[in-house]
Write a structure and sequence with these properties.
Structural class: alpha/beta
Bound molecules: S-adenosylmethionine
Radius of gyration: 22 Å
Strand order of the largest sheet: 3-2-1-4-5-7-6
Order of helices and strands: HHHEHEHHHEEHEHEHHE
Helix content: 25-40%
Strand content: 15-25%
């Protein structure tokens, strides 16, 4: 995984006199990209060092970057939405996915980069209402709006492009067009950078533990890489039990990997071997994904299925090294590090 990208620094913060930047060849491409993005946003884009206009190079760059970075870690890419929507839509299970037409969908911890993207997909597929919730403000309304216009264009180009391979949902371009119109979404205005998301989509800046949603209003509640960042897990589960209607679904992708190092090869037990009582370590509560299941059951959810995408080999000796309550967990609970949980409200 790649570190989350925050707003770029102001243009000019690439210090040419800093020894690290004497040669551009030695400058990490991520640093160059941040500087370039800052300059583009500042409007300083089209001139060469001779002052010539050279806009095509930026056009090529944009196309190549879009192609090269169609990867999961890019939260604005088709690949990302395809992966996450596939998870939400039961792709890794043998269960029938919940119907979407006319439903009320809530996404928790939607993030600040592309907050409405996933919930938009539900509305394009006929959901009556999509609410995305986060504590953080969107980082850039303009970029977040433009990416929604892209999603709409991709869905109109090929309705299956973003559906995570879910070809058993029957979706046509006409369906998408009709749902855009029904929701009063204005794709042209979105492309121009204004948040013309119509009247079925909403971003709410609030806590998942205190939602401004009425009792039993929600049919589908989903989240991606959210729960591990929550200190008050039980309060968030209790709140979901309140807002999800009986028979409604909850789908949560819980990433229990050590967020101290965003790479996939690290041992996932090391960070359970110190600071036994710290509520949060590396911005995470360190709860193992399977530990959430009894809590959900206690609050009236039935566990339909789980899908684990990251495991760690654990034996008795490895467990002995752990501290506090981690030592008392089952080997199975420790083994499941990244897991999607599929639940239904009783
Ligand atoms: C790792 S980010 C994941 C963002 C997004 N779901 C994604 O997959 O890119 C976790 C998000 O959860 C949000 N968050 C943490 N605690 C929250 C709470 N109590 N209520 C709502 N959002 C919360 C954070 O602000 C952050 O944007």
């Amino acid at each position: 995984m790649i570190r989350r990208m925050s707003n770029p620094p102001p243009a000019g913060s690439l210090h040419r006199h800093d020894a690290r930047y004497e040669s551009l060849a030695d400058t990490p491409s991520a640093e160059l990209a941040r500087e370039l993005l800052a300059r583009v946003r500042a409007g300083e884009v089209v001139t060469t060092s001779d002052g010539d206009v050279d806009a095509d190079v930026f056009g090529w760059l944009a196309l190549d970057i879009e192609r090269l970075f169609d990867v999961h870690a890019n939260r604005l890419s088709p690949r990302h939405i395809m992966d996450v929507f596939g998870v939400y839509d039961f792709m890794a299970t043998s269960l029938t996915p919940p119907p979407i037409e006319g439903k009320h969908v809530l996404e928790l911890g939607c993030g600040s980069v592309n907050p409405i993207g996933r919930i938009l997909l539900y509305v394009l597929l006929g959901a009556e209402r999509g609410i995305a919730v986060d504590l953080d403000q969107p980082q850039s309304i303009e970029s977040a709006s433009r990416i929604l216009a892209n999603y709409i264009a991709w869905m109109l180009m090929d309705p299956y492009l973003l559906l995570g391979g879910r070809r058993d949902r029957v979706v046509t371009r006409e369906d998408i067009s009709r749902n855009i119109a029904r929701a009063n979404i204005d794709p042209g205005a979105l492309w121009a950078g204004s948040p013309a998301i119509g009247d079925r989509l909403e971003f709410r800046r609030e806590s998942a533990s205190e939602l401004s949603v009425g009792d039993g209003e929600i049919d589908i509640c989903c989240s991606n890489s959210f729960f591990e960042h929550v200190p008050d897990v039980e309060a968030c589960i209790a709140e979901q039990a309140r807002v999800i209607k009986p028979g409604g679904y909850a789908i949560h992708n819980i990433d229990g990997t050590d967020h101290g190092w965003y790479e996939s090869s690290g041992n996932q037990l090391d960070w359970l071997a110190h600071e036994p009582d710290a509520p949060m370590v590396n911005s995470c509560n360190r709860m193992r994904p399977l530990e959430y299941l009894p809590l959900f059951e206690q609050y009236g959810f039935e566990v339909l299925d789980t899908h684990t995408w990251r495991e760690e080999q654990v034996d008795e000796a490895a467990r002995e090294r752990l501290v506090g309550r981690f030592r008392t967990l089952s080997l199975d609970a420790l083994r499941h590090v990244g897991t999607v949980v599929y639940l239904r409200r009783r």
